[in-house]
Specification:
With 448 residues, the protein is mainly alpha-helical. The chain has 19 helices and no strands. Helix 17 packs antiparallel against helix 19.
């Protein structure tokens, strides 16, 4: 086993912070975008069937899978924070111990959570507004994919461990290979074997297995692998993992719960509206994957510098994260606006579905800057030991910062108003999150 010297492991405590953020975010985004590209690829191939019910079913399923995926992201944030602190202190033995216990606890939590979701799938799908054939198709798809969600959580936690060591490239490879597997299997299963929605679900399951395997191998080969777990060790780490994972999970699941409210509102405007929302929902994390990756990417940078007692670099990293967010959002908005027609054509979008795609590829994308500010604030809160602050910000954004605005503007512009209201509500909470995070950074003493 080849393990880098401890002094070289804490790579973020020196050097240009903006460059660290850019490299980590860009490489991490490829991996994260690959996770969501799995669903995007499914949507592209499913839309080729030209059956509105199936496209809408994938949209409803996506809202629920987003919920379980967010649970995995919360677990990975907790493990990443603990491992990154140990790496920042040059204690690789502790880092390996935290990685081992964090992975095992994450697997346990993931299995229980996925089992609960699986048990109540028909009721959950009904809550989102799906009825008739669309409801039946959604439940069928999810009954195949949901049992494989723990494997995706393993892959996420493995990638978080790699990023905590500064190894963004190997973390990226795991989800990238998962997306490749999905892209290869989709046309074979959907069209070649005529399995339609079932084929898309099977391809998604295989991709999750690939992600888990490719994420764990580099940890074993390059970072000392995992320790033999002990009951005492698991008990000792249960509290610190839960202390971060609990609020981090609550923070992450606020987004899909807010999205569930929006899905329910949009369902009132018909399956064409749900299909349009499903397409924009798949485009958002892929087109803006760098922003979605920012929280997980900047977390280890903040964590290492906090562990090393460099609060000046923690503050600089936070401000550079906001600057990086503004640059990425600006570029992405221009590109999406110029390509809005080809994007809509790719999904065979017509009528209201096309209108919603066009709406996303412009003003709604630009307003995503404020969501990016929340992501950066969440990273600071989670890695400086104040995870409940990020929980409150996220829940505020996706409840009172979503539902009233979406409801209000829907009265003026229908389905488009729902999506506009969802975006507008994020402005206040983006500003609030950045302000609270800066106050917290300035009030946090350097670790001895």
């Amino acid at each position: 086993m080849a393990t880098a010297p401890a002094a070289r492991q804490a790579k973020f405590v020196e050097g240009n912070l903006f460059r660290h953020i850019a490299v980590m975010s860009l490489t991490n985004s490829v991996g994260l975008m690959a996770i969501f590209a799995v669903d995007l690829v499914n949507m592209i191939f499913i839309s080729m069937l030209n059956q509105e019910e199936i496209t809408a079913a994938v949209g409803y399923a996506g809202a629920i899978l987003f919920f379980t995926t967010s649970f995995g992201i919360g677990l990975s944030i907790a493990v990443s924070a603990l491992v990154a602190r140990a790496v920042g202190q040059r204690n690789l033995e502790m880092a390996r111990e935290k990685a081992t216990n964090g992975l095992i606890l994450g697997i346990g939590f993931g299995i229980v959570f996925s089992a609960v979701v699986f048990a109540f799938l028909p009721q959950i799908v009904s809550l989102l507004g799906a009825v008739g054939k669309t409801h039946e198709l959604t439940v069928h798809f999810l009954r195949i994919v949901t049992p494989a969600q723990p494997f995706l959580m393993v892959g996420m936690i493995g990638g978080a461990i790699l990023r905590s060591h500064g190894d963004a490239k190997r973390a990226m490879a795991a989800t990238l290979w998962g997306a490749v597997a999905n892209a290869i299997l989709d046309p074979i299963l959907i069209f070649g074997l005529h399995l339609d929605l079932t084929g898309a679900a099977i391809a998604s399951v295989v991709s999750r297995l690939v992600i888990a395997g490719v994420a764990l191998l580099p940890i074993i080969k390059h970072y000392g692998g995992f320790d033999r777990p002990t009951l005492a060790g698991l008990r000792a780490d249960l509290a610190p993992v839960s202390a971060i994972a609990g609020p981090a999970i609550l923070t992450q699941v606020a987004t899909p719960i807010g999205q569930a409210f929006v899905t329910r509102m949009v369902s009132g405007y018909g399956e064409a509206a749900v299909a349009g929302m499903a397409i924009t929902g798949r485009l958002t994390p892929v087109a803006l994957g760098v922003i979605f990756a920012l929280s997980g990417a900047i977390g280890p940078i903040i964590g290492q510098n906090y562990g090393a007692g460099r609060m000046d670099r923690v503050r600089r990293a936070f401000l550079d994260g906001l600057l990086f967010t503004a640059l990425v959002i600006g570029i992405a908005t221009v590109v999406l606006f110029l390509l809005r027609a080809p994007i809509a054509n790719l999904f065979h979008a017509q009528g209201l579905t096309r209108d919603l795609v066009y709406l996303f590829c412009g003003p709604l994308c630009l307003l995503f800057f404020f969501n990016g500010a929340i992501f950066v604030a969440n990273a600071a809160c989670n890695n400086l030991g104040r995870p409940f602050t990020s929980t409150l910000i996220n829940w505020g954004r996706h409840t009172i910062g979503t539902v009233p605005f979406a409801w209000w503007l829907a009265g003026y512009w229908g389905a488009q108003g729902v999506l506009i209201g969802q975006a507008v509500g994020g402005i206040f909470f983006g500003i609030l999150g950045a302000w609270l995070a800066l106050r917290m950074i300035d009030a946090t003493p350097a670790r001895g």
